[in-house]
Amino acid sequence: MLKKIACLLLGLLFVASSLLLVGCKDDGETSSTVSTEISGAEFLNEEKNWGGETVTIVTQKKDITKYSHCQIDAEATEGEPVNDAFFERNALINEKYGIDIVAVYPEGDENTVTMLRDDMTSGLNDYDAIVCPLYELAPLGIEDLLVDFKSIDNGYIHINEAWWDQKLIEDLNINGHVYFLSGDALVDDDEATWAMYFNKDLIQSHGLEDPFVVVRENRWTLDKMYEMLQNVSLTNGATKSYDPEVGDQWGMVMQSYDYYIFMQSCDQTLVDNTGDKPVMRIDSERNIQVYEKLANIILDGQNVGVADFFGAWDSGVYGQEGKIFANGNALFMPQSILAAGGTGLREAEIHYGIIPMPKADDLQEKYTTGVNVYRYCAFGIPKTNTAKLDVTCYAMEAMAYYGKLRVTPEYYDRTLSLKRFDDDDSSEMLELIFSNRTYDMGAVFNFNAGVEGQGMLYFYASLLGQKTNNLMSTFESKKGVYQTGIDNLIALCYND
């Protein structure tokens, strides 16, 4: 799914024609008047009223992300554009098609996937679909517990349409089967997408090239990034400090997950899933070449501040990274789109912009965008959903279709473009970022021999911990574990 910024214009047409008007009664109940005609686009499903059928979706906890409490089932309007757009979308679906979409959230120590597994084995079948991060959803696909969307022939879900993410379908298919869908039904997929933040004030004060121009001219590469970041450095003491209060300046601040994202953005996935079967490619000549270049940049301790070198991930150093950038003491910071909505950047006095992650070099044809697999959410339908499969598909299609018309414009225009970024250039960059998103089977499935901590997703983090630019020595010690994980997937899913 390419959520083009052009959809903003489309969205304005729909806002002008009023998808629906929603009001709140004094008793807290909601009433709505829904326009039954939407000009300019076509809902592909036959017009049908399901007579009050309920579709229950088990999802992640309400407070995981900014929109996890509302992207499935917003309980009320809040005066926040995206929340209210989700509320209006579901109200429209309820009034026009007679479908009530209900979200069930884990509480306490409950886990979304465990809740679904228990529901399936108990025979209760209370949950008609699941929405959770790819990393958690992936094992259900491997175990053949989810419906293959390509096998559904009820005519109610159209996975090849623009409101579903086509690259997700292409990159994460398992032997041609599609178990995961994401797209305009949700916004956590966009929030979990990676980009490069830069400090406009430091660009100007150091007389550096405009990053927007560099990107447009296809010169935004690892070498260019390193050339620019070396111009920004300030050490107030005997050694470089990661304490934001000290005020040392860095060319770039980052954390361990960024290492993997850099490689993916350089078009270097851990696994090649374009052939008949997934193939590990960590030891390919191109991957090694790009890694060595990247490692030499990241291990520059004078210009690049890696949070993990100053403390464990849960010791507060990741928060320090964000504060250093928000305080105006870093030129670059790779992070998710979600970061722009956090308190630190919302309250920062600096002027910042956003651009794609850099290409490896001029040999790379286009910019590539990676995602946080721990936060990127997608749909799955449990195989036990047989009685309500039709209405579930109809509801999901409506959520995605009307999400594209109603939610995506609100998210892009009013939340990203107006609230989080203050220039037209960033809007253009966001289009570039979202339209070039790719997915790496190696990260999503975290191939291993049964020990999660030894999985493929952690490969570059392990190299970072060793502070080495020698990829092959570490890979030789781990490739057996990784290959066993891939072989297990092939044995389970590629013998039909």
> Got a strand count?
13
In total, how many domains does the architecture comprise? Answer: 2
N-to-C CA distance: 29 Å
Structural class by secondary-structure content:
alpha/beta
Measured on Cα atoms, how large is the radius of gyration? 23 Å
The proportion of residues in beta strands is 5-15%
| Strand arrangement across the biggest beta sheet | 10-7-11-6-12
Model description:
The chain is of the alpha/beta class. The protein has 2 domains: 7-190 and 373-423, D-Maltodextrin-Binding Protein, domain 2; 194-368 and 446-493, D-Maltodextrin-Binding Protein, domain 2 (3-Layer(aba) Sandwich), CATH 3.40.190. Helix content is 39%, strand content 12%. It has 18 helices and 13 strands. The strands form 4 sheets. A 5-stranded mixed β-sheet has the order 10-7-11-6-12, sandwiched between helices. Strands 4-3-5-13 form a 4-stranded mixed β-sheet. Strand 3 (53-59), helix 2 and strand 4 form a beta-alpha-beta unit. Mean pLDDT is 90; it is low at 1-40.
